[in-house]
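Q: A reviewer asked whether we had any structural model of the full assembly, not just the individual parts. We don't, so I'm hoping you can provide one. Inputs are below.
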Amino acid sequence: MQVRFNARKHAALVGAVAALVTFSAAAHHSFAIFDHSQTYTLKGTVREFQWTNPHGYIDLAVSEGPEGIDEFTIELTSINMLRRAGWRSTDVKAGDEVTAIVAPLLNGQKGGLLLELNVPDGRTLVPPVPAINTFQRTPAP
Amino acid sequence: MMPSCAGSALSRHLPLAFAAAVAVGVTFAATPARAQEHSAQTGIGGTWTISFSAGGNPGQTENTRLQQSEPPLKPEYRAVWQARQAAAREADARGEPLATSATFCLPQGMPSMMGGGGPFPMEILVSVGQVTIIQEAYNQVRRIYLDRPQLSLDEIEPGFYGRSVGHWEGDTLVVDTIGIKESVEFRNIPHTLNMRITERIRLVEPDVFVDEITIEDPEVLTEPWNMAFTFSRLPDYEIMEYVCEDNREYADESGATRLRVQ
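A: Here is a predicted structure for the entire assembly that you could use as a starting point for your response.
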């Protein structure tokens, strides 16, 4: 009985998520270029925090992360969505030591989508990525 | 020098402006129904959101259903549309989503900007002779000219928003739009330059308005396609700018979306 209830709940959730993906695609683009099955946890120094549309970007010099990754281009959502979620253009600046959880590009290039960011003042900032829970997290090493 | 000139011009016109204001006031005072209509008409002014996510928007379930409704396409166009949808799904599954107008940071145009803005709010300005709709995403602007005749299609240069004229039928703003480029598509659905969009925009509650949209395109559709979107007021929201300042996404030679990395 419990299993059946959960299955129904899950089906509803999948439907809601699918709808969100459709509409986010309408707003800018599909998130299908990013790996939904794993995440990278990257520690490093911010080279630049770019408060721009259609996306914000963090260019990161990586000190700790998967082997072979020294630089990483981190894509954020639209800055309008970030601002509505409470982000400010001053939240991150060049030189900051940060930890980022990202969904990497599927094609192996050194870039990915930001899912979570720890900044030097101790805050954890989460960008308003539509259907963010569809990205499976890899536990941090 | 300038302020005194402006001041004297103002004082010259003030009695006239006052007389006009009194006349307007008298008109509305004399006809309460007109006053009510006036309030419904100016009431669509403000900042609005269409929301498909959980919570808040009274029209959200209906909006979702309508967004996903099947367009009444003729078989040959249905085949084109379904093939495009299938290609997009397959490309997504490969992790190589097909580039769209969004990849190039192009505005959505009509009718997408009224229903497909996703998480972006919209502002409506009601002024004398014109209603202006500003969609935050891509800084899109539509101008609806009130009580002017529509031009014929061959007098209009095709564009993203076309040419819109409107008039009030009581509390409902009826808008006619033609002249949308064929490349400006709603949900990847093909259309011709002859597509005509009719909207009936009406405040249904003080903080809720509905845009009923009818799309006519006899060469492509078997019948007019109706949909409606419900918007909720965002009382204190200030529309933000949206400039495609640095778009790092691009289409590769196969037409797939890529991200330029450092």
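A: Points you may want to mention in the reply: Residues 128 and 188 of chain B are 36 Å apart (CA to CA). Chain B touches chain A at residues 52-54, 64, 67-68, 91-93, 95-97, 100, 102-103, 105, 108, 112, 116-120, 136-137, 187, 240, 242-249, 257-262 (CB under 8 Å).
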